[in-house]
């Protein structure tokens, strides 16, 4: 895919279908231009009769017409369509594909379980800072599990354990009876054992993608105070998963439709999906699931750009560059100088600061200018909000919280852990406050330097005061930052300008 060329990906799943339109920006990162989804329920027909019934075919054609319109409306010059488990199993799948090609001029590729697992692996892992582990993609008709090490796929399994398929077969009561839930869990565990799905080893992570796990994560997130809205990177604990599953299993399908975080079309399959994932987490010995907001569609889209899977460091740099490029107030040179100054200041004044704090402060220093596009005087808060609301791939939620907290506190606010629970603890407030002051000081110095200058700071560290002589600094006037410095470091700050 050429830069800025739009491509549409259509994913015809067993439970639902979706179209997304992407264009690669100058960094190579895909930007979402448009998208929509539709409930299809293809797997129900296939499991009962092994064919796609007339109603299912008509509904799928209607959805595909809409998908094509969205793709063309967004300027897509290419449409790539794939179909998964239900279409693989349908005896009339080829006839349906031929009809779509004739009527809509869309070529549908039926991908096998191994291909589905590979695309899901590449799409989901790309945006997460994980090196080793297992990754699953739970769809309506099948479950794909991938084992990886050093961000390389080692082995993949495809099992007929889709959320809609299992719910339709095992959970015939509304709400399901305990015996039905037990039989479903036993069936899933038996299938996982027979397939030889391995247990997690030390320093390995279980990653989950697909609509079911994302919905379960949304429900869990909304049940408690949590500072980040995006589900990508959310950690769904095994206990949280069990609690959500138990709560949903007690409700009738109509009641589940009102549950915050649950999509309407998943009310009949979410319990089966939750039981399946509970069995999977227990089988592999995972204490939690790291949720991926991306998956098969993104894996296919990135396959058209670059078939390799970049390192976590490269993904982070790409994400920072892509986000910054959207704002005309971003100044790359000033961002780099501010980051260097902030690191220098924190290393001198708080040598015990953690590497995690240094990294968060450096990323905050680089992103601070994007807030100017909204409002100069409130730029710190706006930059922090943008950082946690947008898709910064390659970062954990804690890293995003630390970066945003430091940018916000570089303004007039003090770091308050209660605003970021459970990602930041109260015991970290003082250390983060010192880092925020280092960032604020670096920003103030950068604003008063001659353009393009990147000076070596001359330090004199005394017991009662810190003297900082800065070549190229045009002027300095003591103010609120100096008073804040005194409270945090228990020393006076003296800055001397040297032309």
What does this protein structure show overall?
With 499 residues, the chain is an alpha/beta fold. Helices cover 47% and strands 17% of the residues. It has helices at residues 42-49, 54-73, 85-89, 93-104, 113-126, 163-170, 178-195, 211-222, 238-249, 253-256, 270-284, 296-303, 312-324, 332-349, 355-367, 379-389, 397-409, 429-447, 480-489, and strands at residues 6-12, 16-24, 30-39, 78-83, 108-110, 133-138, 143-149, 152-159, 205-209, 235-237, 288-291, 458-461, 465-471, 492-498. The protein has a six-stranded mixed sheet with strand order 8-7-6-9-11-10, with helices on both faces. A hairpin with a 4-residue loop joins strand 6 and strand 7 (143-149). Helix 14 runs antiparallel to helix 15 and helix 18 runs antiparallel to helix 19. The protein is elongated. The chain starts with 5 loop residues before the first strand and ends with a strand. The model has no long low-confidence stretch (mean pLDDT 91).
Which helices and strands, and how do they pair?
Blueprint: E1 6-12, E2 16-24, E3 30-39, H1 42-49, H2 54-73, E4 78-83, H3 85-89, H4 93-104, E5 108-110, H5 113-126, E6 133-138, E7 143-149, E8 152-159, H6 163-170, H7 178-195, E9 205-209, H8 211-222, E10 235-237, H9 238-249, H10 253-256, H11 270-284, E11 288-291, H12 296-303, H13 312-324, H14 332-349, H15 355-367, H16 379-389, H17 397-409, H18 429-447, E12 458-461, E13 465-471, H19 480-489, E14 492-498
Parallel strand pairs: 1-4, 4-5, 6-9, 9-11, 13-14
Antiparallel strand pairs: 1-2, 2-3, 6-7, 7-8, 10-11, 12-13
Helix pairs in contact: 5-12, 6-11, 7-11, 8-9, 8-11, 9-11, 14-15, 14-18, 15-17, 15-18, 16-17, 17-18, 18-19
């Amino acid at each position: 895919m050429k830069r800025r060329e739009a491509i549409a990906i259509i994913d015809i799943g067993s439970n639902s279908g979706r179209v997304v339109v992407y264009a690669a920006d100058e960094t190579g990162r895909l930007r979402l231009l448009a998208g929509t989804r539709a409930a299809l329920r293809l797997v129900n027909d296939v499991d009962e009769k092994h064919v796609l019934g007339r109603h299912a075919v008509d509904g799928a054609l209607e959805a595909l017409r809409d998908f094509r319109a969205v793709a063309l409306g967004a300027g897509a010059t290419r449409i790539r369509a794939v179909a998964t488990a239900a279409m693989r199993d349908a005896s009339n799948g080829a006839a349906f594909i031929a009809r779509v090609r004739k009527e809509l001029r869309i070529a549908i590729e039926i991908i096998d379980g191994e291909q589905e697992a590979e695309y899901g692996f590449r799409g989901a892992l790309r945006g997460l800072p994980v090196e080793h582990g297992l990754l699953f993609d739970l769809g309506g008709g099948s479950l794909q599990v991938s084992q990886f090490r050093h961000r390389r796929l080692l082995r993949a399994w495809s099992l007929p354990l889709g959320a809609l398929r299992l719910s339709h077969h095992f959970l015939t009561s509304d709400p399901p009876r305990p015996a039905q839930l037990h039989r479903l869990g036993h069936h899933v565990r038996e299938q996982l054992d027979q397939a030889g799905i391995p247990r997690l080893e030390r320093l390995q992570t279980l990653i989950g993608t697909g609509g079911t796990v994302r919905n379960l994560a949304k429900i869990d997130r909304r049940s408690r105070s949590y500072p980040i809205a995006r589900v990508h990177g959310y950690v769904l604990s095994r206990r949280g998963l069990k609690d959500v599953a138990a709560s949903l299993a007690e409700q009738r399908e109509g009641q589940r439709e009102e549950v915050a975080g649950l999509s309407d079309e998943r009310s009949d399959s979410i319990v089966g999906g939750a039981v399946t994932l509970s069995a999977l987490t227990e089988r592999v010995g995972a204490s939690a699931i790291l949720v991926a907001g991306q998956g098969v569609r993104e894996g296919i889209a990135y396959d058209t750009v670059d078939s390799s899977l970049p390192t976590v460091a490269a993904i982070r740099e790409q994400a920072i560059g892509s986000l910054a490029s959207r704002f005309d107030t971003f100044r790359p040179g000033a961002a780099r100088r501010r980051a260097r100054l902030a690191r220098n200041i924190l290393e001198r004044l708080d040598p015990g600061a953690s590497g995690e704090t240094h990294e968060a402060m450096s990323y905050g220093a680089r992103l601070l200018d994007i807030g100017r596009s909204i409002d100069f005087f409130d730029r710190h808060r706006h930059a922090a909000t943008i950082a946690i609301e947008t898709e910064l791939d390659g970062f954990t939620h804690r890293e995003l919280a630390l970066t945003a907290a430091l940018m916000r506190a570089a303004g007039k606010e003090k770091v308050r852990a209660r605003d970021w629970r459970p990602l930041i603890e109260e015991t970290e407030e003082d250390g983060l406050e010192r880092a925020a002051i280092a960032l604020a000081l670096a920003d103030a110095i950068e604003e008063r330097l001659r353009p393009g200058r990147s000076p070596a700071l001359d330090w004199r560290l005394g017991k009662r005061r810190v003297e900082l002589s800065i070549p190229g600094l045009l002027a300095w006037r003591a103010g609120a930052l100096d008073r804040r410095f005194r409270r945090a470091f228990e020393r006076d700050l003296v800055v001397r300008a040297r032309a």
